[in-house]
Structure formats: structure tokens, C-alpha cells
Specification:
The protein is an alpha/beta fold. The chain has a domain of 239 residues: Alpha-Beta Barrel (TIM Barrel), CATH 3.20.20. The protein is built from 13 helices and 17 strands. The protein starts with a strand and ends with a helix. Bound molecules: xanthosine-5'-monophosphate.
Length: 346
């Protein structure tokens, strides 16, 4: 039940969907080789990428090594902001390829942005949990007045079309869409707020603004990536799928069953203690995940799966995927059948 401003009760709760609720219907295809499929996506008119995948600005996902690997694979890595300005600039300088880095909306964000640009960064990511906020509007306005329009500004996160349009109107070139869906998020548990990520993507893809849409949070399989792109995302942003690799920051350690690395939400207790010495609102968790080896192999696998996904829809590029794809809802039995269900039987 929704209670509106006047305290009236309404029974018009919207139904929402996310990745496991839907499937894409296979369609007639004339694609003879997956190599003919083009995965190029535009962050803006001057910035095209061969692989529509971006690594998250998190301190267990993207440092210079990951950003360089992402660039080599045709994607993009956004260097996290949980460090001194000097250290972040150093990581930007050590990144080969496209250089992108995160900033906040308070404190030293303007000095940080200026220093990052001097270090060669030409994509800034304004990285906050609740992007539909007066502080975001102020930061975007201030940055545009200070740095002009040559630098690409990615901003987020948002969950609604209204927020998406506002950030676009305030000066963002690309927008991260998804609140509370990340594998290490506890925002929905702690605050009761959020929108299932695929729903947010579908809602925001109705925007008429010329900005790129980045689906972020809760993407756990290559199939989820294809669903996000079919729903209207220009890019996906990945945390857990790229964490635990040789290129992610942090040490490998030995556990009971093998090698592990840490993957943690940036609002987790552990991350907050490390970057600001105390905790405020805890909206994430820290987790250990099995060590996965090189991210290069993972990205090659993802690229192959995304190409296969397009060929099942008969789409030669991401635009065709978006226009041709047909989503269907699946119930619980369909979800079970869609998994490798042999595992639950033997
Ligand atoms: P995945 O599912 O790819 O999600 O692991 C990564 C995304 O999660 C967001 N993020 C957080 N969200 N609390 C949150 O509610 C956190 O502590 C947190 N840390 C990261 C972020 O959008 C990232 O790309």
C-alpha cells in the first residue's frame, strides 16, 4: 500500500522485475559467426568502447592494474576514490589506456577532480550512493563551471527515470543506474529503499536525454549482462564478477579450501574504518571470495557469452539487441529449470 502526501492510502503498488524474473526469447537468426557481432558502445560521441563492461570504483575491484586490463580488453576501469589525492593520481598515471577515476560530492572533491585531470584523467565518475541529491546537483554545476565540457562526467547512482533525467539535465554524460542491488549491498536491508536493478534500467531507458546508461549492481552472470543490455543499458558495471582476480587490488590469502581474496562494499564497516577511520551509516558487507586468476580470461569469457546472447536474438549489434529483444517473465519453476538443476538432484 502506498501512502501519499495527504495520508491517503492507495493500493497501487507497482510490480517490479529483476534479472532472474525474466528471460529473453530466442529468435530467428541469420548470424553465421559470433565474430561478425559488434559490441561497440558509446559513453559519449567521442568515447567508444569495444566491450560494454566497466569495473566498479571499489577498493577491492579497480586500481591501476585492473583499469589497464579493462582498457586492453576494450572496456573501462574506474579507479576508486578511497585514498589520498596523491595516491589516486599516481594510480591514474600508472593506468595505460583510457583513464577514469572517481570523486565524491563533498570535502576535497573539486581539488581531487582538478588533480586527477592534471594526471591525465579524462573521465570523472561522481560516485555516491544516493545520486538524486542536491549535493550532486551542486557538484555537477560546480564541476562544469570549473572544468568545462571536454571531460566526461559519469554520475550516480540513481534508481528512477526522474533521477536519471535530472542528472542528465544537471550535466552528467553517463549515469549509473541501480540502488541497493549489489552483491555486497545492505542498503535495502538497512533503509528499506531501492529498486530491483533491471526494473530501474528499463525505467531509465525510457529517457529522451542523450546520456549513456550504465546498469550497476546485482549482475552475477553473463546472461544478466545480456538482459541488462537488452533492457536498454549501454554498459554494465561489475563488482563481484571482476573481484577476486589477479588484477583486483588486495592480497591473495590461503583459506581452508584454497586461495581467496577480499571483496567488500565501500559502505561496509571494514572499508569505512580503512578509508575514514570510523563508521557512519553501514550499508554494505565484506566478504571473502575464491581467487579466480587473471581477469583477462574472465573478460574473454564474458565477451564470448555476450556475443552468443546477441546471436540468440538475431542481433548484429547492441542497437539491434535493444530493438529486437523480447522479454518474458518466468515463475519459480522456470527459474529452477533455468539453473543447472542437476546440482539440486544428485
Ligand atoms: P556487484 O553486484 O557487481 O555490485 O557486486 C557492485 C556495485 O555495488 C555498489 N556498491 C555498494 N552498494 N553498499 C551499497 O549499497 C555498499 O557498500 C556498496 N559498495 C559498492 C556499487 O554501485 C558497485 O558498482
Amino acid at each position: 500500500m502506498i501512502i501519499d502526501k495527504e495520508g491517503m492510502m492507495k493500493n497501487n503498488i507497482n510490480e517490479t522485475i529483476t534479472f532472474d524474473d525474466v528471460l529473453l526469447v530466442p529468435q530467428y537468426s541469420e548470424i553465421l559467426s559470433r565474430k561478425t557481432i559488434d559490441l561497440i558502445s558509446e559513453l559519449d560521441m567521442n568515447r567508444k568502447f569495444d566491450l560494454p563492461v566497466i569495473s566498479s570504483p571499489m577498493d577491492t575491484v579497480t586500481g591501476a592494474t585492473m583499469a589497464t586490463a579493462m582498457s586492453k580488453a576494450g572496456g573501462l576501469g574506474v579507479i576508486h576514490r578511497y585514498d589520498t589525492i596523491d595516491d589516486q593520481c599516481d594510480r591514474v598515471r600508472r593506468t595505460n589506456g583510457t583513464k577514469a577515476a572517481a570523486i565524491g560530492v563533498t570535502g576535497d572533491y573539486l581539488d581531487r577532480a582538478t588533480a586527477l585531470i592534471k594526471s591525465g584523467c579524462d573521465i570523472l565518475c561522481i560516485d555516491v550512493a544516493h545520486g538524486h541529491h542536491a549535493l550532486m546537483r551542486h557538484a555537477l554545476k560546480t564541476l562544469r563551471n570549473t572544468i568545462g565540457y571536454d571531460i566526461h562526467i559519469m554520475a550516480g547512482n540513481v534508481a528512477t527515470l526522474e533521477a536519471f533525467n535530472d542528472l542528465a539535465d544537471w550535466g552528467a554524460n553517463s549515469i549509473r543506474v541501480g540502488i541497493g542491488g549489489g552483491s555486497i549491498c545492505s542498503t535495502r536491508i538497512q533503509t528499506g529503499h531501492g529498486v530491483p536493478t533491471l526494473q530501474s534500467v528499463m525505467d531509465c531507458s525510457r529517457s529522451d536525454r542523450s546520456v549513456a546508461l550504465i546498469a550497476d549492481g546485482g549482475i552475477k552472470t553473463p546472461g544478466d549482462i545480456v538482459k541488462a543490455l537488452a533492457a536498454g543499458a549501454d554498459f554494465v558495471m561489475l563488482g563481484s564478477m571482476l573481484a577476486g582476480t589477479a588484477e583486483s587490488p588486495g592480497q591473495v590469502f590461503y583459506g581452508k579450501d584454497g586461495q581467496y581474496k577480499s571483496y567488500r562494499g565501500m559502505a561496509s564497516v571494514e572499508a569505512q574504518i580503512d578509508w575514514r577511520g570510523h563508521t557512519a551509516s553501514v550499508e554494505g558487507v565484506s566478504h571473502t571470495i575464491p581467487y579466480k586468476g587473471s581477469v583477462v580470461e574472465i573478460l574473454m569469457g564474458l565477451e564470448g557469452s555476450i556475443r552468443s546472447g546477441l546471436s540468440y536474438t538475431g542481433a548484429l549489434n547492441l542497437g539491434e539487441l535493444r530493438s529486437k529483444s523480447k522479454f518474458i517473465k518466468q515463475a519459480a519453476a522456470g527459474q529452477t529449470e533455468s539453473s543447472t538443476h542437476i546440482k539440486s538432484r544428485y
